[in-house]
């Protein structure tokens, strides 16, 4: 009886696995088609100085609208693209698009607004990555100092010497580096100091717990103290409430990003937002 039940659940399990693999293969094929048909696009979310509300940057975020008008979230398709290697081509497209947008922002008087671009481990491992970055800069005319690459904490902590060398070359080119989703990985302090990144991006999960008296508040406070000690600038992601912004500011976090300030917006809306925001600046 027990044996039979067990066998039954194994069969059910492998059927679920099979379904899941089939779904993934199907989704990957659709993603390739969407990429080829240029149905992927970027949205941009402002990053502001918490003390003044001044916009100091925008993060480029990838979006996929399917044929039937539905949206597939990046948390679903980016991992697929990573595992299949498609992320190299996709990531290059993101780089070029975002750099072009940055150049256009500069041309319209917003050259002081940084463009933050997410880069995944597979991209960093691509031997031609540095060349691709240089090409994206040359082709767009964007100034390297306006571009920041965001890398997740686990990637930044990769111990390979080659990756450290790639970071060094990126920095030499004049780009800035930020560690994304900080606090979710296992950073070694010495490694963190050696990497000399410009910014730490505090993960949304810790920000969400601020103002609720949870342990996330303690982590946010630890991360802020650490960043200050290492002389890095701090930015918090996923700020939705005023009280979170206030607490972060009190902890010494200078910058923030989240629905409280602005949602990610299409490229066409960004210039108008930046213009309006610059005009209305001065302590929001
Ligand atoms: P991320 O880099 O940590 O991006 C921040 C995510 O938080 C974005 O989700 C953004 O829309 C969301 N967010 C911002 N403010 C708030 C807020 O106040 N509340 C809440 N609940 N969410 C907020 P999104 O756009 O769904 O992207 C998810 C992840 O997908 C990104 O996390 C990033 O890891 C990855 N991703 C997105 N675009 C790219 C890309 O072009 N290349 C790579 N390699 N990864 C990307
Ligand atoms: Mg990011
Ligand atoms: Mg993040
Ligand atoms: Mg995140």
From TrEMBL:
Domain EAL intervals: 24-278
UniProt name for this protein: EAL domain-containing protein
Organism: Pseudothauera nasutitermitis
Span of the entire protein shown here: 455 to 738 of 738
């Amino acid at each position: 009886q027990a044996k039979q039940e067990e066998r039954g659940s194994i069969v059910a399990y492998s059927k679920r696995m099979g379904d899941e693999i089939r779904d993934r293969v199907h989704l990957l094929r659709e993603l390739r088609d969407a990429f080829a048909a240029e149905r992927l696009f970027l949205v941009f979310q402002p990053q502001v100085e918490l003390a003044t509300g001044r916009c100091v940057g925008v993060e480029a975020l990838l979006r996929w609208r399917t044929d039937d008008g539905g949206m597939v979230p990046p948390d679903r398709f980016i991992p697929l693209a990573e595992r299949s290697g498609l992320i190299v081509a996709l990531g290059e497209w993101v780089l070029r698009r975002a750099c072009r947008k940055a150049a256009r922002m500069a041309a319209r008087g917003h050259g002081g607004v940084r463009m933050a671009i997410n880069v995944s481990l597979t991209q960093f491992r691509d031997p031609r990555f540095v060349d691709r970055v240089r090409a994206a800069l040359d082709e767009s005319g964007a100034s390297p100092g306006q571009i920041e690459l965001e890398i997740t904490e686990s990637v930044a902590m990769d111990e390979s010497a080659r990756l450290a060398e790639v970071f060094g070359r990126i920095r030499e080119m004049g780009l800035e580096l930020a560690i994304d989703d900080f606090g979710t990985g296992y950073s070694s302090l010495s490694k963190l100091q050696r990497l000399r990144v410009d910014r730490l991006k505090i993960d949304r999960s810790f920000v969400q717990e601020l103002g609720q008296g949870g342990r996330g508040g303690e982590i946010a406070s630890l991360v802020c103290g650490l960043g200050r000690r290492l002389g890095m600038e701090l930015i918090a992601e996923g700020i939705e409430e005023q009280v979170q912004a206030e607490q972060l500011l009190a902890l010494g976090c200078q910058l923030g990003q989240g629905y409280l300030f602005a949602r990610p917006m299409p490229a066409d809306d960004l210039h108008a937002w930046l213009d309006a925001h610059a005009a209305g600046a001065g302590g929001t």
